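Researcher: We're teaching a course module on how sequence relates to structure. For the next exercise, students receive a sequence and then see the predicted structure as C-alpha coordinates, so they can try to spot secondary structure elements on their own. Here is the exercise chain.
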Amino acid sequence: MNKTVPINIISFENSEILNNVASTRFPGRVTKKTFPPLTVSGKPWPKISIVTVSYNMVDYIEDTILSVIGQRYPNLEYIVIDGGSKDGTLDIIKKYEKYITYWISEPDNGMYDAIQKGFNKATGEIMAYINSDDKYHYQAFFSAATIFTSHEDIQWILGRASFYNDEGTIVDVKDLKKWSKFDYYTGEYKWIQQESIFWKKDLWIKAGSKINTDLKYAGDYELWLRFFRFAKLYSCETIFAGFRFRTKDQLSLEKIDSYLYEVDSVTNLNSLPREDKYALKKISFFKKYISRIPFIRKIKFLRRNYERIFDYPPKIVYDFIQRQFFKNFSK
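Model: And here is the predicted structure for the students to work with:
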Protein backbone atom coordinates (compact mmCIF):
# COMPACT_ATOMS: atom_id res chain seq x y z
CA MET A 1 0.00 0.00 0.00
CA ASN A 2 1.18 3.52 -0.61
CA LYS A 3 -0.10 7.04 -0.58
CA THR A 4 1.35 10.17 -2.13
CA VAL A 5 0.06 13.52 -0.89
CA PRO A 6 1.74 16.89 -1.57
CA ILE A 7 2.26 18.94 1.56
CA ASN A 8 2.57 22.71 1.65
CA ILE A 9 1.55 24.40 4.89
CA ILE A 10 0.05 22.25 7.62
CA SER A 11 -2.10 23.76 10.38
CA PHE A 12 -2.75 21.86 13.58
CA GLU A 13 -4.43 24.63 15.58
CA ASN A 14 -7.60 22.68 16.40
CA SER A 15 -6.60 19.23 15.28
CA GLU A 16 -7.54 16.09 17.15
CA ILE A 17 -3.96 14.92 16.68
CA LEU A 18 -2.35 17.46 18.97
CA ASN A 19 -5.28 17.93 21.33
CA ASN A 20 -5.75 14.25 22.11
CA VAL A 21 -2.92 13.27 24.44
CA ALA A 22 -3.00 10.04 26.46
CA SER A 23 -6.72 9.70 25.60
CA THR A 24 -7.50 13.03 27.30
CA ARG A 25 -8.97 15.80 25.16
CA PHE A 26 -7.28 19.11 25.82
CA PRO A 27 -8.73 22.51 24.84
CA GLY A 28 -7.33 24.22 21.76
CA ARG A 29 -4.94 27.14 22.05
CA VAL A 30 -6.36 30.53 22.96
CA THR A 31 -3.46 32.43 21.41
CA LYS A 32 -2.65 31.38 17.89
CA LYS A 33 0.87 30.05 17.45
CA THR A 34 2.43 31.67 14.39
CA PHE A 35 5.80 31.43 12.70
CA PRO A 36 7.55 34.03 10.56
CA PRO A 37 6.96 33.56 6.82
CA LEU A 38 10.72 33.83 6.18
CA THR A 39 13.87 32.77 8.00
CA VAL A 40 15.90 35.33 9.99
CA SER A 41 18.10 35.74 6.91
CA GLY A 42 15.04 36.71 4.86
CA LYS A 43 14.87 33.46 2.89
CA PRO A 44 11.94 31.09 2.42
CA TRP A 45 11.89 28.09 4.72
CA PRO A 46 13.78 25.35 2.83
CA LYS A 47 12.08 22.02 2.23
CA ILE A 48 13.07 19.42 4.81
CA SER A 49 12.76 15.74 3.91
CA ILE A 50 12.40 13.37 6.86
CA VAL A 51 12.41 9.59 6.43
CA THR A 52 11.07 7.19 9.05
CA VAL A 53 11.46 3.44 8.66
CA SER A 54 9.49 0.94 10.70
CA TYR A 55 8.69 -2.71 11.22
CA ASN A 56 6.23 -3.85 13.89
CA MET A 57 6.65 -0.73 16.01
CA VAL A 58 3.05 -0.22 17.12
CA ASP A 59 4.05 0.78 20.65
CA TYR A 60 6.31 3.64 19.53
CA ILE A 61 5.70 4.89 16.00
CA GLU A 62 2.85 7.22 16.94
CA ASP A 63 5.23 9.21 19.15
CA THR A 64 7.68 9.45 16.27
CA ILE A 65 5.08 10.55 13.73
CA LEU A 66 3.68 13.20 16.07
CA SER A 67 7.17 14.51 16.78
CA VAL A 68 7.57 15.08 13.03
CA ILE A 69 4.22 16.48 11.95
CA GLY A 70 3.78 18.30 15.25
CA GLN A 71 6.67 20.56 14.30
CA ARG A 72 4.19 22.42 12.08
CA TYR A 73 7.11 23.22 9.80
CA PRO A 74 5.72 24.96 6.69
CA ASN A 75 7.79 23.12 4.07
CA LEU A 76 7.91 19.51 5.24
CA GLU A 77 8.21 16.36 3.16
CA TYR A 78 7.58 13.34 5.39
CA ILE A 79 8.24 9.84 4.07
CA VAL A 80 7.43 6.64 5.96
CA ILE A 81 8.76 3.29 4.77
CA ASP A 82 7.30 0.27 6.54
CA GLY A 83 8.66 -3.25 6.12
CA GLY A 84 5.30 -5.03 6.09
CA SER A 85 4.24 -4.70 9.72
CA LYS A 86 1.56 -7.04 11.09
CA ASP A 87 1.11 -5.61 14.60
CA GLY A 88 -1.10 -2.57 14.08
CA THR A 89 1.63 -0.19 12.90
CA LEU A 90 -0.22 0.33 9.61
CA ASP A 91 -3.35 1.45 11.43
CA ILE A 92 -1.34 4.23 13.04
CA ILE A 93 0.28 5.26 9.76
CA LYS A 94 -3.15 5.38 8.11
CA LYS A 95 -4.46 7.51 10.96
CA TYR A 96 -1.98 10.24 10.05
CA GLU A 97 -1.61 9.60 6.31
CA LYS A 98 -3.05 12.99 5.31
CA TYR A 99 0.00 14.54 6.98
CA ILE A 100 2.47 12.12 5.36
CA THR A 101 3.80 12.97 1.91
CA TYR A 102 4.46 9.37 0.92
CA TRP A 103 4.25 6.01 2.65
CA ILE A 104 4.51 2.39 1.65
CA SER A 105 4.37 -0.96 3.40
CA GLU A 106 6.17 -3.88 1.77
CA PRO A 107 8.94 -6.35 2.62
CA ASP A 108 12.46 -4.97 2.39
CA ASN A 109 16.03 -6.17 2.76
CA GLY A 110 16.68 -4.54 6.11
CA MET A 111 16.71 -1.11 7.71
CA TYR A 112 19.18 0.53 5.33
CA ASP A 113 17.36 -0.78 2.29
CA ALA A 114 14.23 0.89 3.66
CA ILE A 115 16.10 4.13 4.38
CA GLN A 116 17.43 4.17 0.82
CA LYS A 117 13.90 3.71 -0.52
CA GLY A 118 12.85 6.73 1.47
CA PHE A 119 15.68 8.95 0.33
CA ASN A 120 15.06 7.94 -3.27
CA LYS A 121 11.72 9.72 -2.86
CA ALA A 122 13.14 12.75 -1.07
CA THR A 123 13.24 16.12 -2.83
CA GLY A 124 14.12 18.42 0.08
CA GLU A 125 17.11 20.72 0.38
CA ILE A 126 17.70 19.41 3.92
CA MET A 127 17.57 15.72 4.77
CA ALA A 128 17.44 13.51 7.86
CA TYR A 129 16.03 10.22 9.07
CA ILE A 130 14.63 9.08 12.37
CA ASN A 131 13.78 5.57 13.48
CA SER A 132 10.24 4.71 14.51
CA ASP A 133 10.91 4.76 18.25
CA ASP A 134 12.91 8.00 18.55
CA LYS A 135 11.51 11.53 18.68
CA TYR A 136 12.29 15.05 17.51
CA HIS A 137 12.22 17.88 20.00
CA TYR A 138 9.66 20.64 19.51
CA GLN A 139 10.46 23.07 16.66
CA ALA A 140 13.79 21.39 15.94
CA PHE A 141 13.18 21.77 12.19
CA PHE A 142 12.99 25.55 12.52
CA SER A 143 16.32 25.60 14.34
CA ALA A 144 18.00 23.36 11.75
CA ALA A 145 16.63 25.37 8.82
CA THR A 146 17.69 28.65 10.45
CA ILE A 147 21.25 27.41 10.92
CA PHE A 148 21.55 26.23 7.33
CA THR A 149 20.07 29.37 5.78
CA SER A 150 22.19 31.65 7.99
CA HIS A 151 25.43 29.81 7.22
CA GLU A 152 25.41 28.58 3.64
CA ASP A 153 28.88 27.03 3.96
CA ILE A 154 27.63 24.53 6.56
CA GLN A 155 26.75 21.17 5.01
CA TRP A 156 25.76 19.07 8.02
CA ILE A 157 24.98 19.68 11.66
CA LEU A 158 24.64 17.80 14.94
CA GLY A 159 22.74 18.74 18.09
CA ARG A 160 23.39 17.68 21.67
CA ALA A 161 22.76 13.99 22.26
CA SER A 162 19.60 13.45 24.28
CA PHE A 163 17.81 10.34 25.49
CA TYR A 164 14.30 9.14 26.31
CA ASN A 165 13.33 6.24 28.50
CA ASP A 166 10.96 3.54 27.29
CA GLU A 167 7.92 5.64 28.19
CA GLY A 168 9.18 8.53 26.06
CA THR A 169 10.25 10.81 28.91
CA ILE A 170 13.37 12.89 28.28
CA VAL A 171 15.86 11.72 30.91
CA ASP A 172 19.33 12.81 29.78
CA VAL A 173 21.06 15.46 27.68
CA LYS A 174 24.80 15.12 27.09
CA ASP A 175 27.49 17.77 26.85
CA LEU A 176 28.21 18.91 23.32
CA LYS A 177 31.29 17.49 21.64
CA LYS A 178 33.14 18.80 18.62
CA TRP A 179 33.83 16.28 15.88
CA SER A 180 36.54 15.91 13.26
CA LYS A 181 37.12 13.36 10.55
CA PHE A 182 40.31 12.49 12.40
CA ASP A 183 38.29 11.38 15.41
CA TYR A 184 36.70 8.79 13.16
CA TYR A 185 39.97 7.86 11.49
CA THR A 186 41.61 7.20 14.88
CA GLY A 187 38.75 5.13 16.25
CA GLU A 188 37.19 7.82 18.46
CA TYR A 189 33.73 7.54 16.91
CA LYS A 190 31.51 6.94 19.97
CA TRP A 191 29.00 8.33 19.31
CA ILE A 192 27.48 10.69 16.76
CA GLN A 193 23.77 10.50 17.54
CA GLN A 194 22.14 9.66 14.19
CA GLU A 195 18.72 11.14 14.91
CA SER A 196 20.34 14.48 15.82
CA ILE A 197 21.94 14.91 12.39
CA PHE A 198 20.67 17.03 9.50
CA TRP A 199 22.46 17.50 6.19
CA LYS A 200 22.09 19.32 2.90
CA LYS A 201 21.10 17.41 -0.19
CA ASP A 202 24.23 18.74 -1.95
CA LEU A 203 26.36 16.79 0.54
CA TRP A 204 24.22 13.69 0.05
CA ILE A 205 24.85 13.89 -3.69
CA LYS A 206 28.60 14.43 -3.27
CA ALA A 207 28.75 11.36 -1.02
CA GLY A 208 27.08 9.17 -3.63
CA SER A 209 23.35 9.64 -2.85
CA LYS A 210 23.24 6.34 -0.99
CA ILE A 211 23.48 4.59 2.32
CA ASN A 212 25.34 1.29 2.35
CA THR A 213 22.59 -1.32 2.07
CA ASP A 214 25.11 -4.16 2.40
CA LEU A 215 25.46 -3.30 6.09
CA LYS A 216 23.02 -4.28 8.82
CA TYR A 217 24.17 -2.20 11.79
CA ALA A 218 26.78 0.46 10.91
CA GLY A 219 25.23 2.16 7.87
CA ASP A 220 25.10 5.51 9.64
CA TYR A 221 28.80 5.26 10.61
CA GLU A 222 29.77 4.51 7.01
CA LEU A 223 27.66 7.42 5.76
CA TRP A 224 29.34 9.83 8.22
CA LEU A 225 32.73 8.60 7.00
CA ARG A 226 31.81 9.64 3.46
CA PHE A 227 30.34 12.94 4.62
CA PHE A 228 33.58 13.76 6.43
CA ARG A 229 35.47 13.44 3.15
CA PHE A 230 33.57 16.48 1.82
CA ALA A 231 32.57 18.69 4.75
CA LYS A 232 33.11 19.49 8.41
CA LEU A 233 30.45 18.52 10.92
CA TYR A 234 29.24 21.50 12.95
CA SER A 235 28.11 20.80 16.51
CA CYS A 236 25.20 22.97 17.66
CA GLU A 237 24.38 24.05 21.21
CA THR A 238 20.78 22.96 20.92
CA ILE A 239 18.80 19.73 20.88
CA PHE A 240 17.20 18.34 17.73
CA ALA A 241 16.12 14.81 18.63
CA GLY A 242 16.46 12.05 21.20
CA PHE A 243 17.23 8.35 21.20
CA ARG A 244 14.79 6.09 23.06
CA PHE A 245 16.20 3.35 25.27
CA ARG A 246 13.69 0.54 25.01
CA THR A 247 13.34 -2.27 27.51
CA LYS A 248 13.47 -4.97 24.83
CA ASP A 249 14.23 -5.73 21.18
CA GLN A 250 16.67 -2.85 20.63
CA LEU A 251 18.90 -3.88 17.75
CA SER A 252 21.47 -1.10 18.24
CA LEU A 253 22.20 -2.29 21.79
CA GLU A 254 21.81 -6.03 21.38
CA LYS A 255 24.10 -6.24 18.33
CA ILE A 256 26.92 -3.95 19.46
CA ASP A 257 29.60 -6.55 18.64
CA SER A 258 28.25 -6.91 15.11
CA TYR A 259 28.18 -3.13 14.81
CA LEU A 260 31.84 -2.85 15.81
CA TYR A 261 32.76 -5.59 13.34
CA GLU A 262 31.10 -3.68 10.50
CA VAL A 263 32.84 -0.48 11.60
CA ASP A 264 36.20 -2.19 11.24
CA SER A 265 35.26 -3.63 7.87
CA VAL A 266 34.34 -0.26 6.28
CA THR A 267 37.07 1.93 7.81
CA ASN A 268 39.58 1.97 4.98
CA LEU A 269 42.29 4.58 5.58
CA ASN A 270 44.41 3.54 2.60
CA SER A 271 42.32 5.65 0.26
CA LEU A 272 42.76 8.86 2.26
CA PRO A 273 44.46 11.82 0.55
CA ARG A 274 48.14 12.35 1.31
CA GLU A 275 47.58 15.31 3.64
CA ASP A 276 45.18 13.31 5.78
CA LYS A 277 47.63 10.44 6.05
CA TYR A 278 50.34 12.89 7.13
CA ALA A 279 48.02 14.36 9.77
CA LEU A 280 47.31 10.85 11.09
CA LYS A 281 51.04 10.24 11.47
CA LYS A 282 51.38 13.39 13.57
CA ILE A 283 48.43 12.36 15.72
CA SER A 284 49.90 8.90 16.19
CA PHE A 285 53.29 10.36 17.19
CA PHE A 286 51.70 12.67 19.75
CA LYS A 287 49.62 9.86 21.28
CA LYS A 288 52.50 7.41 21.33
CA TYR A 289 55.20 9.67 22.74
CA ILE A 290 54.17 13.20 23.78
CA SER A 291 50.93 12.42 25.60
CA ARG A 292 52.60 9.78 27.76
CA ILE A 293 54.87 12.31 29.46
CA PRO A 294 52.77 14.18 32.04
CA PHE A 295 54.70 17.47 32.28
CA ILE A 296 55.03 17.73 28.47
CA ARG A 297 51.34 16.89 28.01
CA LYS A 298 50.48 19.98 30.07
CA ILE A 299 52.38 22.43 27.86
CA LYS A 300 49.68 24.60 26.30
CA PHE A 301 51.23 25.29 22.92
CA LEU A 302 51.79 21.57 22.35
CA ARG A 303 48.15 20.84 23.18
CA ARG A 304 47.01 23.64 20.88
CA ASN A 305 49.17 22.34 18.05
CA TYR A 306 47.75 18.87 18.59
CA GLU A 307 44.17 20.17 18.46
CA ARG A 308 44.89 22.16 15.31
CA ILE A 309 45.62 18.91 13.49
CA PHE A 310 41.99 17.88 14.03
CA ASP A 311 40.79 21.15 12.48
CA TYR A 312 37.59 21.27 14.52
CA PRO A 313 34.94 23.68 13.26
CA PRO A 314 33.51 26.22 15.73
CA LYS A 315 30.40 25.36 17.68
CA ILE A 316 27.10 26.87 16.60
CA VAL A 317 25.55 28.87 19.45
CA TYR A 318 22.37 30.94 19.76
CA ASP A 319 22.65 34.67 20.55
CA PHE A 320 19.55 35.74 22.49
CA ILE A 321 20.18 39.43 21.84
CA GLN A 322 20.73 39.14 18.09
CA ARG A 323 18.18 36.30 17.95
CA GLN A 324 20.27 34.17 15.64
CA PHE A 325 22.73 31.28 15.57
CA PHE A 326 26.40 32.17 15.15
CA LYS A 327 29.78 30.44 14.92
CA ASN A 328 31.47 30.65 18.30
CA PHE A 329 35.22 30.42 17.72
CA SER A 330 35.97 30.88 21.42
CA LYS A 331 34.45 27.55 22.48
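Model: If you want an answer key for the exercise: The first strand starts at residue 2 and ends at 4. The chain has a mean pLDDT of 89.
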